[in-house]
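Take a sample.
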Amino acid sequence: MTTKTRASLICVLLLVAALALGGCGGSSATDGKAKYPERPVEGIVGWGAGGGTDVFARAIAKPAGEILGQTIAVKNMPGSSGAIAGDYVTQQPADGYTLWFMGSNYAVNVALGRTPHPLSDYIPVARIQHDTAMLQVTKTSKFKTVDDIVAYAKANPGKLKVGGTGAASFDEVVIALWEDAAGIKVNYVPYENGGQMQAALLGGHLDIMFEELGPVAGRVADGSLVPVLAFSEKKLEKFPNLPVAPDKGWNITLGNWRGVMVNKGTDPAIVKKLEETFTKAKDTPSYKKVEKDTFLDLRPGYLSGKDYGAAIQKDIDVYKKALTKLGYIK
């Protein structure tokens, strides 16, 4: 081998080595993000099984996991109206492997100072749904209309037993606003999850309950539970005879929204991938079917991560004013 040939060969080898090293070194900082997720993802729910947030999480986690190519395992972590779950999420690595399936109660918790974590401790990924809450009775109830209920409550202050999920929760806030608007006083009974509350109503331990349609769609369909009032801005197409709060002069149209957040510090590329994933997941046939079957399509709910963050902050401000007026915040 001549000197010239040897020199050329060395140059080629050095070039190949440089390309190889450059290829490895140049992408090492992004490979993990580009490949995300490389293992199953955990989805935290701050409520027990059977409630609206649990139903939502399981319905969206399946198609989202299929899009991501990894399972999203839903884990229930009830307590303190979702505050325990929110705290847990902040203690996990900000790597996108822990998602928080959360809802309106987070805004209530912030307003009440019940969580040490402000909105800046999280990154909103997307809002998926905006549910419609209702007052419901059993088919054998002595109350046939919301007017019957109000008349009883006025004649018997503090005796009407109204079920909701969580103490000083979104449910209790709406019920308190309804009491104030209707000029009544009720006995609010908090439950840790929707399943317990539904059993209590069906067992005759409650007079009415505050619940969305989704978790009880089957019982509403078979007639064992009967909605008597919807907290909605306008009449519901699927329930044309059901009065809405404004029909009675009560300007209460709050609904429990639900979406996804992750720990602050999560790489923007991962957050973007998650937002794109959940945006696609909400439009999959499987989620659309759940949405339709559980009446989650009664009003639009989707918001991008940026808009979701603004909406959460707006609700925090609304709840602070409402809770102060109602005496929950001194």
